[in-house]
Design a protein that fits this description.
globular; alpha/beta; isomerase; 21 helices; 44% helix; five-stranded parallel sheet; cobalamin; Me-malonyl-CoA_mutase_sm_su_N
Length: 602
Amino acid sequence: MTVLPDDGLELAGEFPDVPHEQWQRLVAGVLRKSGKDVEGAEAEEALSTALEDGLRTRPLYTARDNAPKPGFPGFAPFVRGGRAEGNTVGGWDVRQRHTAADGTAVLADLENGVSSLWLTVGEDGIPVPALGTVLDGVYLDLAPVVLDAGRETEPAARELLRLYEERGVARDVARGNLGADPLGHEARTGQGYDVAPVTDLARRCAEEYPGLRALTVDALPYHEAGGSAAQELGCSLATAVAYLRELTDAGLSVEQACAQLEFRYAATADQFLTIAKLRAARRLWARVAEACGAPRAGAQLQHVVTSPVMMTRRDPWVNMLRTTIATLAAGAGGADSVTVLPFDHALGLPDAFARRIARNTSTILIEESHLSRVIDPAGGSWYVERLTDELAHAGWEFFRRIERLGGQAAALRSGDLGQDLADTWAARSGKLAKRREPITGVSEFPHIAEKPVVREPAPEPRSGGLPRVRRDEAYEALRARSDAHLAATGSRPRIFLAAIGPAAAHTARLTFASNLFQAGGIEPVTEGTFEESGASEAVLCSSDALYEEQAEAVAGQLKAAGAAQVFLAGRPGNHPGVDSYVFAGCDAVAVLSATLDRMGVS
């Protein structure tokens, strides 16, 4: 949204306007050289990228791509932020998660950049009686505490309130969230819990603790079950509306009820989608508050967590890059609090180094990159504004679907919501299997000889409800089979890469095949002969021209030497002696799984 200076100087004024159709003709010319004969809008569509929820990212956005005005920070519809000052004063709240009763780790975090604590309490975390010990030495008047206690929310909350009283923390100074989330717990475990104590806690917070909230609207269970961005938004709205109904029925006003809710979303390494999701979430919640007659209460408090789904167990160091991008997106999207999961999150309890890297990720973005000094830095981008608008509409439609099913609880219990999420994940799993959505260090550029990173086991997470998925799960299963074979036999399954012709002809496809089979834990062998390799299968690697000349003969030689299966790295064609083809876009998981089956790797 360009604003001209007072003197009216327009820097592009001396340049002639370029019609959109001229740009499309130029695109069509380039595509024609690559074999695609398309014109006009079809040429532009050929460069578009399909997203989930029926959305598409186009290659070019201009002033023609209108979106509703986002308003101003701190004012409805709160697209640009829930507070007028945004995070410019001190950056976002750096919130670290702890699942073990380790007071030393808690103090180390608070002394080195963390500003609030997120504590998992109960059977899968810190025992309620140990809460005081874990918080020993913590200045509770300075460090907000957020609980996540599931069915033990009421005793955990009462213990925290007791600690406030015992340590002389004034009620108007206490900050944080008691973490009640009955529907979120039901999504995790398949079992809900009584809402009456929750409404009592909310009433007490509203009357006695102005800086303390009682409920969390956690969208992570739906994200971790494979849900899309719009489904995450729709579930959070449906959950929040259900809580509004319970709280107002218990006697709280709409304004008081809204003030008791904190929303939790996932941030992924898709930075623009994450930015748009957080902006859309604020707009949607503002619409709900307006419909409930409390437009000024529609400023959504957002706690954003880097996505557990994107975290990998193999080559976990790459997770640092993923969480950095996700944290940048969360900050640029206007998150109030951000939790960066340690890079070894998927492996067990994080060590001190991993926690340090996690908290320093936010510190660098705030203190060195000055990311928080600009409110809504992505605002005004035609792409981001349009994506925000489209995502808001998609999220609203999914919210309406849940309401038609009878609300969030009914949608969960009927299985309809779970099926919607499963369908979305199945479609995404297909892209992962074909490496259309690559995973660095796992499906692309795997390091098969890497030394495993070992951590102490973490408490078992809550289960019994919606599944928890990970992007790497299919490849992790293949690598686990290879690891078991290595432990049992002393070597990994092997495949021989037969390079045909000079390096210029075979290097590209040899590298492709090497990466592909290593993704399944199969060791590629490029030196010596097939007989010397210890492999039972082989892959031909060369150029199309050399395949026409030599593929049949080389495949015959490999079969004669004992190769049970001969692949060709390239598009399927007519090459006698070749049993199968591997190429960009093939189902890598299916190919690798079948290969391990033939090799007897269980």
